[in-house]
Amino acid sequence: xxxxxxxxxxxxxxxxxxxxxxKKDKGKILDEFCATTSYNRKYAAxxxxxxxxxxxxxxxxxxxxxKYVITKAKKIKRTRNRIYTYDxxxxxxxxxxxxxxxxxxxxxxxxxxxxxxLTKHKEIDMSPEVKQKLLKIFITSRVIVYAHSxxxxxxxxxxxxxxxxxxxxxxxxxxxxxxxxx
Length: 182
Known about the structure:
Layout: H1 4-20, H2 23-37, H3 41-50, E1 55-61, E2 64-69, H4 86-98, H5 104-107, H6 111-120, H7 128-136, H8 142-152, H9 170-174
Antiparallel strand pairs: 1-2
């Protein structure tokens, strides 16, 4: 049975190997570490991820002492470009209103036909790019969720509740649309 000091020493030593290792080797290192310290696997993985790295050395830069430590690389946050613009949102909202606010699973099959008929009767104007995006939109897209919450529920920016079909025109409803940064 190991005492706490020994476990910490083992953790520091194994932690530096764990940081340098690839994914396949990390599993083997974790198995060895769990067998040695009798830690739970999840707990051991967390300790090794957060363990301080091995000190490589010290130097003086500008009169200050600097410590060099091996650490894990920081992950770069990926940013995605928006697929659906505000024009797509407004066109989708108008089509959804015309179809009496049906759910997205029922709306999707009628989307191509609705776009064709509405453009033919000049109810809606859209560019070919917006039309293409509306035809490719997923049922679970957040754009549909934004349209739904803006029509039915309380808005982030106002406390007025909006009910479809109570005599409000599309212009009045569009005042309460959640302003998203498309």
